[in-house]
C-alpha cells in the first residue's frame, strides 16, 4: 500500500457515487475553513506580520525551484521513511506547533483532535505551549505516533523547568524551543480587530494546570490575574548564554526552532542543541524577510549532517514537501494546512490534508524517479530562471 493509493480510494469512491468531502486545493481549503471560524480566529490564523510579504514569500519561494524528472527508475512502491532521533518514521511529515489549535474545533478540544490526526496518519504531532487542554491530556491521543513538546520559554525559570519535566513525564519525545516569539510580531490584522486570544484567557491550559504557575498566581486567581501573570512571564528574551541552562533542563533531544542563519545553526549545535528547526514562524513574526526555503540550503550546509534539520513555513503541496527534502530537510512540518483541515472537517478533514500531501509527494517521487528519501539530493532540483 503506497501513500499515493489515496487517489485510487478517492476515484473508486466516486465510481460508487461518493464524491470527496474535503477540498484538494489550498485556496479552497483556506477559504472554506475560514468561513467556519469566528472573525477573531480568522485574522489570528490567516494573518501574518506587517503587510505579509514574508508570509507570501514563504509559499512563492518554492516556485524558485524545479524538480528534475529522472526516468527508467520506476518503483511500484516508494519508501518515504526517515530516521529521526533514533526512530524510523514512516514519512518525513510533521504537524507544526500551533497555539490556537484548541480553539478551531467547535468543542474547543482541537489540540486533542490534532493529536488524533497524528495517531491516524503516523505523522508526529508537535504540541504547542499554548494549548486549550493540558499537555498530559493531549499526548495520549497521539497513540503510538511520536509527539514533541514546543516550549515558549517563560521568564520564570522554575515554570520552564516544570513545563519541560511535565512534557517528559507525559511521553513527549523531544523539546522544541521556539526562539523567534519572545515578543509577538507586528500583526496588523489582529491589531485592527484588537484580537490576541491569550489576552482573553484562551489557550492557557498548560499554565493554569501547572503547579509552579499556581504558586505565581496564588490560590483561586480570577481570570484577569491569570492573564496578567501569563503576560508577565510569557516571553523570555533568550540569548546564547541561556542555552546552557535550557540544555540542562532535559535529557530529551533539544530542537531549536526559528534558526535561519548558518552561523546560528553551527553555534546552536556547538552549544548542545540536538536538532535545528529552520522556520520563520510562517511569516507571523517578522516581515521584511525572504521565504524560509531560501535559508534552508545554507542551514543544511552548516549543520553538515551533525543533526536533523526540520523545516516549515509555506509548505502547501506534496511538491513543496519533496522540494524541501531535496534541499536537505530531514523532516518537513505543516502549520496552517492541517489547522484548516481540522477547522473545516474535524479529524477526518485534518487526516485528508495529511493524506493528500503524502499522496502527492509519494506520486511525485514515483513519477520523477526518486523512490526513497536518500534519492532526493540537491541534484534533484534546479533553480529556475
Ligand atoms: C495560528 C498559528 C499559531 C501558531 N502557534 C505557534 C506556537 O504556539 N508555537 C510555535 O512554535 N509556532 C507556532 N506557529 C508557527 C508554526 O509552528 C509554523 O512555524 C508555521 O505555521 C509554518 O508556516 P505555515 O503555516 O505557512 O505552514 C503558529 C502558526 C500559526 C499559523
UniProtKB/TrEMBL annotation:
GO-annotated molecular function: FMN binding; oxidoreductase activity
The entry marks the following residues as binding FMN, namely 97-99, 128, 150, 178, 257, 279, 312-316, 335-336
Which Pfam families does the record associate with it?
FMN_dh
Needed cofactors, names only, are: FMN
Positions annotated to bind glyoxylate: 44, 152, 187, 281, 284
Q: Which UniProt keywords apply?
A: Flavoprotein, FMN, Oxidoreductase
Under the heading InterPro entries, the entry gives: Aldolase_TIM, Alpha-hydoxy_acid_DH_FMN, FMN-dep_DH, FMN_HAD, FMN_hydac_DH_AS
Q: Which residues form the active site?
A: 281
Superkingdom assignment: Bacteria
Q: Where would I find the FMN hydroxy acid dehydrogenase domain in this sequence? A: 18-385
Keyword flag Ribosomal protein: no
Iron-sulfur found in the keyword field: no
Tell me the protein family, please. Answer: Belongs to the FMN-dependent alpha-hydroxy acid dehydrogenase family.
Protein name in the entry = Alpha-hydroxy-acid oxidizing protein
Amino acid at each position: 500500500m503506497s501513500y499515493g493509493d489515496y487517489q485510487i480510494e478517492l476515484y473508486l469512491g466516486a465510481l460508487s457515487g461518493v464524491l470527496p468531502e474535503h477540498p484538494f486545493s489550498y485556496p479552497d481549503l483556506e477559504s472554506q475553513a475560514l468561513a467556519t471560524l469566528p472573525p477573531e480566529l480568522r485574522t489570528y490564523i490567516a494573518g501574518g506580520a506587517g503587510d505579509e510579504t514574508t508570509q507570501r514569500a514563504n509559499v512563492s519561494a518554492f516556485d524558485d525551484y524545479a524538480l528534475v524528472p529522472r526516468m527508467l527508475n520506476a518503483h511500484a512502491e516508494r519508501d518515504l521513511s526517515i530516521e529521526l532521533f533514533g526512530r524510523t518514521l514512516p514519512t518525513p511529515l510533521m504537524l507544526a506547533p500551533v497555539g490556537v489549535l484548541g480553539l478551531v474545533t467547535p468543542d474547543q478540544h482541537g489540540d486533542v483532535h490534532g493529536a488524533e490526526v497524528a495517531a491516524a496518519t503516523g505523522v508526529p504531532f508537535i504540541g504547542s505551549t499554548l494549548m486549550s487542554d493540558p499537555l498530559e491530556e493531549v499526548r495520549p491521543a497521539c497513540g503510538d505516533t511520536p509527539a514533541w513538546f514546543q516550549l515558549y520559554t517563560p521568564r520564570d525559570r522554575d515554570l520552564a523547568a516544570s513545563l519541560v519535566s511535565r512534557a517528559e513525564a507525559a511521553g513527549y519525545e523531544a523539546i522544541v524551543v521556539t526562539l523567534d516569539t519572545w515578543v509577538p510580531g507586528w500583526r496588523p490584522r489582529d491589531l485592527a480587530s484588537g484580537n490576541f486570544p491569550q489576552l482573553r484567557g484562551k489557550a492557557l491550559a498548560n499554565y493554569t494546570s501547572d503547579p509552579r504557575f499556581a504558586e505565581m498566581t496564588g490560590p483561586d486567581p480570577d481570570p484577569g490575574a491569570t492573564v496578567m501573570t501569563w503576560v508577565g512571564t510569557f516571553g523570555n528574551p533568550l540569548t546564547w548564554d541561556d542555552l546552557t541552562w535550557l540544555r540542562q533542563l532535559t535529557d530529551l533531544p533539544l530542537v531549536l526552532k526559528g534558526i535561519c542563519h548558518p552561523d546560528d545553526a553551527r553555534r546552536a549545535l556547538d552549544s548542545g542543541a540536538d536538532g535545528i528547526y529552520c522556520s520563520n514562524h510562517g511569516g507571523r513574526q517578522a516581515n521584511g524577510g525572504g521565504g524560509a526555503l531560501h535559508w534552508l540550503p545554507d542551514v543544511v550546509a552548516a549543520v553538515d549532517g551533525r543533526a536533523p534539520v526540520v523545516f516549515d513555513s509555506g509548505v502547501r503541496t506534496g511538491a513543496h514537501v519533496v522540494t524541501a527534502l531535496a534541499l536537505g530537510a530531514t523532516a518537513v512540518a505543516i502549520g496552517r494546512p492541517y489547522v484548516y483541515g481540522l477547522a473545516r472537517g474535524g479529524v477526518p478533514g485534518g487526516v485528508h490534508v495529511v493524506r493528500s500531501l503524502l499522496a502527492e509527494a509519494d506520486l511525485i517521487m514515483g513519477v520523477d524517479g526518486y523512490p526513497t528519501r536518500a534519492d532526493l539530493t540537491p541534484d534533484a532540483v534546479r533553480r529556475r530562471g
